């Protein structure tokens, strides 16, 4: 379980995250939703220790994040940022192999290779695995980055807008992979997601952020209601049930 | 050609250059010339290796291929120290004439400066490395200005001695220093071994490195200190020559076209040796000492630098 307690973060004298407390259930998919600038990425980066928090505590499985050893954490929690830029020229396979660094420290074992190939297969990258990242389309690159995170094989998987650049087919494919990670392998998946219908159809819990605060959290059913979404996004939603999934209609 | 083959070829070429340097025109007084040439080659290999290694890891840490460690102001500080010593104590003082004392003073101040700089900048968490570079540039310029100021006031005869130290040169390698420099380099090299495995990951950038479990601040701080010590050693030994690093690091990147530092580092060390020994050969046998090695290196490096900029600008 990830336990975020009274965490705050500010830049200059502007509070970006204000005393946020939230508990994230193990083995489930939790989606962070909210308008641009709500602080979703900032919160995710703090949970994954990429940026430091100003106040509060974060516990992962009862361990204080700041007291954990870096390499142990890298086997427990992985993150994919909203935008990624790598300065060096890498092939897809080389990138995915980096996901094994916490285990192999650079010397890949047979087991490492197994994980790498599996991750590549999961993301349907076999055909382009020897291509350089800068030769790929945005969506192919995004899948390569996700494959790296999958190869890292951590209990907690944090993804900031993983559907960036992806077409519908691959968006669905990735959400299905994430479901599989949660349901079959018991991993805890935390994603930031803007497509409310993907959040509705694939997540177990939803945390809604706005102006640096959690304004609502609960099961998907509790959050995907016209009144809650209206409060979060300040616009009108209609919610229809199609194939027992709640689908939001917000084009007007 | 595989990268291993390239490494072997570079090693062979380095060896060939070294042998050519030692044996061409050895002459009849070989019992006098041979030991001096061996010393010179040894000094070149030592500095070449140190410069290549430190530039390579510096570029990896900064994720930037057009920077050299001189950007944090160590070269300028070295010149300031030399000028200051002569300005205050005169050129006949022990601090100037005794090479060991001068070496210790130079290294001491350079490392002290680097540690103060890092201490200052790493105090607050989350400081970004480009801020360090910015402050380094400002200090470097500042040191340069004071140096010039003192050089204007200095006695012209003394200025000649300062000028002599402004350019890197192997023409009169400070032999006394080789032993102490070797000991220092070996200690630092052994210490840096434990960080080598992080270099590949560091080249992915800070966020990825942290995600993959690298204790980023700790590792980068250690590497920066290693760089400062190594640059100080090589500068005190032959003078400011970090520009060479830019040249060899980029040639290594282009030649090996990989992110793997096991090839990049060893390769750049060999390239550095080839460039230095080759350059020194030209200085001694073609120009018969009428020019210095840094002039040649800076010329070649400058041309290569412009080429790089033109090439990079195309890909923007
Ligand atoms: N490095 C920074 N310096 C200053 N302000 C920042 C910094 N990073 C983020 N912010 C501010 O913090 C706020 C929250 O940013 P954050 O990236 O967490 O938003 P987000 O919810 O992920 O938005 P989006 O949906 O657009 O990705 C924004 O107002 C942003 O301007
Ligand atoms: Mg964001």
From TrEMBL, chain A:
Q: What is its main location?
A: membrane
Give the domain of life.
Bacteria
GO BP annotations listed: iron ion transport
Q: Name one GO cellular component term.
A: plasma membrane
Q: Where in the cell is it found?
A: Cell membrane
Per the record, membrane topology reads:
Peripheral membrane protein
- ABC transporter domain: from which residue to which, for each copy? 2-236
Pfam families named in the record: ABC_tran
- Name the UniProt key words of this record, in alphabetical order: ATP-binding, Cell membrane, Ion transport, Iron, Iron transport, Membrane, Nucleotide-binding, Transport
Signal peptide range equals none
Provide any one GO MF term from the record: ATP binding
Q: Identify the SUPFAM superfamilies for this entry.
A: P-loop containing nucleoside triphosphate hydrolases
* Annotated InterPro entries: AAA+_ATPase, ABC_transporter-like_ATP-bd, P-loop_NTPase, Siderophore_ABC-ATPase
**The protein's name:** Iron complex transport system ATP-binding protein
TrEMBL record, chain B:
Q: How does it sit in the membrane?
A: Multi-pass membrane protein
Location of the protein in the cell: Cell membrane
User: What are the protein's UniProt keywords?
Assistant: Cell membrane, Ion transport, Iron, Iron transport, Membrane, Transmembrane, Transmembrane helix, Transport
Q: Which family does it belong to?
A: Belongs to the binding-protein-dependent transport system permease family. FecCD subfamily.
Recorded hits in SUPFAM superfamilies, A to Z, give:
ABC transporter involved in vitamin B12 uptake, BtuC
Which GO molecular function entries does the Swiss-Prot or TrEMBL record give? transmembrane transporter activity
Domain of life the protein comes from: Bacteria
GO CC annotation terms, alphabetical: plasma membrane
What InterPro entries does this protein's entry cite? Answer: ABC_BtuC-like, ABC_transptr_permease_BtuC
**Gene Ontology biological-process entries:** siderophore-iron import into cell
**What name does UniProt use for this protein?**
Iron complex transport system permease protein
Record organism: Mesobacillus foraminis
User: What transmembrane ranges does the database entry give?
Assistant: 6-29, 41-61, 67-89, 101-122, 128-154, 175-196, 223-251, 263-283, 289-310
Q: What is its main location?
A: membrane
């Amino acid at each position: 379980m990830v336990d975020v307690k009274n965490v705050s973060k500010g830049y200059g004298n502007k509070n970006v995250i204000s005393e946020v407390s939230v508990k994230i259930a193990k083995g489930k998919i939790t989606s962070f939703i909210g308008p641009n600038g709500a602080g979703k990425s900032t919160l995710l980066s703090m949970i994954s220790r990429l940026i430091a928090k100003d106040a509060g505590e974060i516990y992962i499985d009862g361990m204080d994040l700041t007291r954990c050893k870096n390499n142990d954490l890298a086997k427990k929690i992985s993150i994919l940022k909203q935008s990624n830029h790598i300065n060096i020229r890498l092939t897809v396979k080389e990138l995915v192999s980096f996901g094994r660094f916490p285990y192999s420290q650079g010397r890949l074992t047979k087991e490492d290779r197994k994980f790498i190939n599996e991750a590549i297969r999961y993301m349907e990258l076999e055909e382009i695995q020897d291509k350089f990242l800068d030769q790929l389309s945005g969506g192919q690159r995004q899948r390569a980055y996700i494959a790296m995170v999958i190869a890292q094989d951590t209990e907690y998987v944090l993804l900031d807008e993983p559907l960036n650049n992806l077409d519908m087919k691959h968006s669905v494919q990735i959400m299905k992979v994430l479901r599989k990670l949660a349901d079959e392998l018991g991993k805890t998946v935390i994603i930031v997601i803007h497509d409310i219908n993907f959040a509705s159809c694939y997540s177990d819990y939803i945390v809604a952020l706005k102006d640096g605060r959690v304004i609502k959290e609960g099961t998907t059913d509790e959050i995907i209601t016209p009144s809650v979404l209206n409060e979060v996004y300040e616009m009108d939603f209609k919610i229809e049930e199609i194939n027992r999934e709640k689908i939001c209609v917000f084009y007007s | 050609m595989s990268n291993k083959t390239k490494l072997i070829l570079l090693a062979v070429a380095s060896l060939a250059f070294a042998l050519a340097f030692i044996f061409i025109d050895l002459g009849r007084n070989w019992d006098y010339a041979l030991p001096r040439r061996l010393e010179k080659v040894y000094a070149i290999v030592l500095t070449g290796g140190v410069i290549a290694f430190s530039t390579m890891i510096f570029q990896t840490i900064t994720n930037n291929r057009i920077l050299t460690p001189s950007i944090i102001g160590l070269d300028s500080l070295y010149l300031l120290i030399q000028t200051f010593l002569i300005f205050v104590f005169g050129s006949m003082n022990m601090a100037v004439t005794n090479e060991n004392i001068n070496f210790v003073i130079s290294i001491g101040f350079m490392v002290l400066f680097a540690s103060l700089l890092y201490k200052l900048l790493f105090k607050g968490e989350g400081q970004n490395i480009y801020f360090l570079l910015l402050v380094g540039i400002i200090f470097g310029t500042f040191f340069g200005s004071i140096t010039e100021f003192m050089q204007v006031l200095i006695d012209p005869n003394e200025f000649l001695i300062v000028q002599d130290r402004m350019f890197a040169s192997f023409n009169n390698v400070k032999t006394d220093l080789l032993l102490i420099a070797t000991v220092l380099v070996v200690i630092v090299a052994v210490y840096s071994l434990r960080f080598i495995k992080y270099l590949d990951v560091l080249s992915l950038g800070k966020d990825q490195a942290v995600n993959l479990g690298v204790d980023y601040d700790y590792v980068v701080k250690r590497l920066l200190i290693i760089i400062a010590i190594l640059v100080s050693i090589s500068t005190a030994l032959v003078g400011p020559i970090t520009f060479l690093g830019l040249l060899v690091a980029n040639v290594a990147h282009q030649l090996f076209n990989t992110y793997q530092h096991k090839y990049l580092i060893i390769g750049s060390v060999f390239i550095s040796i080839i460039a230095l020994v080759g350059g020194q050969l030209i200085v001694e046998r073609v120009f018969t000492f009428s020019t210095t090695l840094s002039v040649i290196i800076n010329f070649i490096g400058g041309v290569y630098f412009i080429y790089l900029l033109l090439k990079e600008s195309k890909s923007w």
